[in-house]
């Protein structure tokens, strides 16, 4: 049976068919749906881990225990899990072990354009790169088999377009894969220096074997069309090239992007006057080709290092032919900048922080939009958990008085991911920073996944709920206050009090995400024109439902969900609730 699947769902299907037993991940766009799809298969144990490092370690442990295991993350999540990943390259596996990493060229939902192929080379772990959903499934199945055959973890590299584009996939039955026997093996799995020195030899021998395999494996294939132009490419860039160039060029499609073949590339390149290397982001394939002596090469001298490629861009660079980049519509489409949703609980927090003129050390999540107009509260965003640690550094650099003008903001899921250690650092090193945990009862930015603070597992089963108050107090924060950010007057009072303290403090800004099914605001808000002074204070909230029309404030009923924050901000009582 065939089915239309996005790439992420196809990876999940491939893992299921390959007999995967354990999947542990942390949600991160564009990889999230892989694990969400895995949950649909009851035969597989799946979890949302607190962070990617823990997820990788759970998967590694499952592999050592004899099960086929997988962990999925976005490219910056690979940074978090790098420590165990580099070491498991040395230990090898027992059950097959696959790491799925989704890169984000164009930064649709990320803070950088990191190219994960560098990790494959640095950690000396094989990496496969599918170009469509059918390959996503088949490459995932192959990855588990290759993992066990060569005693190695295997990377599957995706990108936003592969992860979220749909194509047909042939569905097959699940393999009946028995647990591998577990045997104590100190020399293989205990990576103290004496053992690691010996395992490094194994790694180098393995890479040599994989390089030989790359020369003959059908996963690296050629397509000859009788052209004098050759194209070397992989992943989604192959699909773009096929659309742009059709049969006007010959192709060497690389399904294995590490290790790369040598003889296969040299034999291909010598047939052509010009060879183009088409790859998004860094010149990984290009640098390898140049290093092995391919000179009739064009790569980043005609293609960009930045963002995503398009068929139009490729067609112009290779054939010199121009084409329309996009279909132009006659009507002008209104600009729709990123904005927090109507009813977002974070809006009240940032309104208060902006009003108080505080410096805000920000973090990764929906609340990064607190940097956008008109709130413009957030001063820094670096990586998960950095809001807490960086704020301590800022305070130590600028002194005690600056600290009273500084707060950190971090989501509940992000706090569990990597904010706790930063808070420990503040307490241990005698800081007196104020940390605001934005507790919206869910992992919001990646589409409403459970986390340790929600009290539910990935399958919606009830579990122990992390107590943020007890957790903060247990590491030495004596001043922990829970406040509703929509109670603007009280929240402002709480923030003023906490930033003045001569000790660390935590404010838990507690209100659920407006998009949760359990949140049901009633009616919508409207302007009482008789009371309205047109002060436009409500406009400073940046709510998408509140706009100006003919110089007057209006509320769009189709966008307003009746959260009531604007009612709490209006000084003249000019905003009223109208029941639906």
Short description, anyone?
The protein is α/β, with parallel strands linked by helices and about 575 residues long.
Task: Give the SSE layout.
Layout: E1 2-6, H1 7-17, E2 22-25, H2 32-38, E3 45-48, H3 52-64, E4 69-74, H4 75-80, H5 82-91, E5 97-103, H6 117-123, E6 126-128, H7 133-150, E7 154-159, H8 160-164, E8 166-170, H9 186-189, H10 193-216, E9 220-223, E10 229-233, H11 235-245, E11 250-254, E12 256-258, H12 263-269, E13 274-278, H13 284-291, E14 297-298, H14 311-319, H15 346-356, E15 359-361, E16 378-380, H16 386-398, H17 400-403, E17 406-411, H18 412-428, E18 434-439, H19 468-474, E19 479-483, H20 488-499, E20 505-510, E21 524-527, E22 546-549, E23 552-555, H21 565-569, E24 575-578
Parallel strand pairs: 2-3, 2-4, 4-5, 5-7, 6-7, 10-11, 10-13, 13-14, 15-16, 15-17, 17-18, 18-20, 19-20
Antiparallel strand pairs: 1-8, 6-12, 9-11, 21-24, 22-23
Helix pairs in contact: 1-2, 1-7, 3-5, 11-14, 15-20, 16-18
Structure description:
The strands form 6 sheets. Strands 3-2-4-5-7-6-12 form a 7-stranded mixed beta sheet, with helices on both faces. Strands 16-15-17-18-20-19 form a 6-stranded parallel beta sheet, sandwiched between helices. Helices cover 36% and strands 19% of the residues. Strand 2 (22-25), helix 2 (32-38) and strand 3 form a beta-alpha-beta unit. The longest helix has 24 residues, at 193-216. The mean pLDDT is 96. It is an alpha/beta fold and 580 residues long.
List keywords for this structure.
36% helix; 580 residues; 24 strands; 19% strand; seven-stranded mixed beta sheet; alpha/beta; six-stranded parallel beta sheet; single chain
């Amino acid at each position: 049976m065939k089915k239309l699947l996005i790439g992420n769902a196809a990876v999940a299907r491939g893992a299921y068919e390959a007999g995967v037993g354990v999947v542990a991940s942390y949600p991160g766009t564009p990889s999230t749906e892989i694990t969400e799809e895995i949950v649909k298969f009851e035969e597989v144990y799946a979890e949302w881990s607190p962070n990617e490092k823990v997820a990788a370690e759970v998967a590694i442990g499952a592999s050592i225990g004899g099960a086929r295991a997988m962990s999925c993350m976005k490219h910056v999540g690979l940074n978090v899990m790098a420590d165990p990943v580099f070491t498991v390259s040395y230990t090898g596996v027992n059950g097959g072990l696959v790491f799925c990493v989704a890169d984000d060229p164009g930064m649709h939902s990320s803070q950088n354009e990191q190219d994960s192929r560098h990790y494959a080379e640095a950690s000396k772990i094989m990496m496969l790169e599918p170009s469509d959903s059918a390959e996503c499934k088949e490459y995932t199945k192959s990855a588990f088999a290759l993992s066990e055959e060569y005693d190695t973890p295997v990377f599957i590299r995706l990108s936003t377009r592969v992860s979220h584009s749909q194509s047909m996939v042939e569905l097959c039955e699940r393999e009946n894969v028995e647990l591998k026997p577990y045997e104590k093996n100190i020399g293989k799995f205990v990576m103290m220096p004496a053992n690691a020195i010996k395992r490094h030899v194994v790694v180098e021998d393995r890479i040599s074997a994989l390089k030989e395999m790359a020369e003959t494996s059908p996963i690296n294939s050629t397509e000859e069309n009788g052209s004098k132009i050759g194209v070397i490419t992989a992943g989604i860039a192959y699909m773009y090239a096929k659309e742009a160039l059709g049969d006007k060029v010959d192709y060497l499609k690389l399904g294995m992007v590490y290790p790369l073949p040598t003889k296969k590339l040299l034999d291909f390149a010598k047939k052509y006057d010009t060879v183009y290397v088409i790859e998004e982001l860094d010149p990984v394939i290009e640098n390898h080709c140049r290093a092995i002596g391919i000179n009739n090469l064009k790569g980043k001298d005609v293609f960009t290092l930045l963002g995503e490629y398009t068929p139009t861009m490729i067609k112009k660079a290779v054939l010199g032919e121009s084409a329309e980049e996009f279909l132009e519509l006659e009507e002008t489409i209104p600009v729709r900048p990123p904005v927090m949703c109507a009813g977002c609980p974070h809006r009240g927090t940032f309104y208060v922080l902006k009003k108080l003129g505080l410096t805000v050390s920000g973090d990764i999540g929906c609340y990064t939009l607190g940097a956008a107009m008109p709130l413009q509260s957030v001063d820094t965003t670096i990586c998960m958990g950095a809001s807490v640690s960086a704020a301590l550094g800022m305070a130590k650099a600028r002194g005690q008085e600056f600290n009273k003008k500084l707060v950190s903001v971090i989501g509940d899921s992000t706090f569990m991911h990597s904010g706790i250690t930063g808070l420990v650092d503040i307490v241990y090193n005698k800081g007196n920073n104020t940390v605001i945990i934005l507790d919206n009862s869910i992992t919001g930015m990646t589409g409403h996944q459970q986390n340790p603070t929600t009290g539910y597992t990935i399958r919606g089963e009830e579990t122990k709920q992390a107590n943020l108050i007890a957790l903060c107090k247990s590491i030495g924060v004596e001043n922990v206050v829970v406040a509703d950010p929509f109670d603007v007057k009280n929240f402002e009072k709480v923030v003023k009090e906490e930033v003045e303290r001569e000790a660390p403090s935590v404010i838990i800004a507690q209100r659920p995400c407006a998009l949760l099914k359990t949140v049901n605001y009633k009616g919508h808000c409207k302007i009482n024109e008789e009371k309205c002074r047109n002060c436009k204070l409500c406009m400073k909230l940046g709510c998408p439902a509140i706009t100006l029309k003919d110089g007057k404030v209006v509320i769009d009923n189709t966008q307003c969900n009746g959260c009531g924050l604007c009612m709490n901000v209006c000084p003249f009582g000019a905003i009223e609730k109208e029941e639906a």
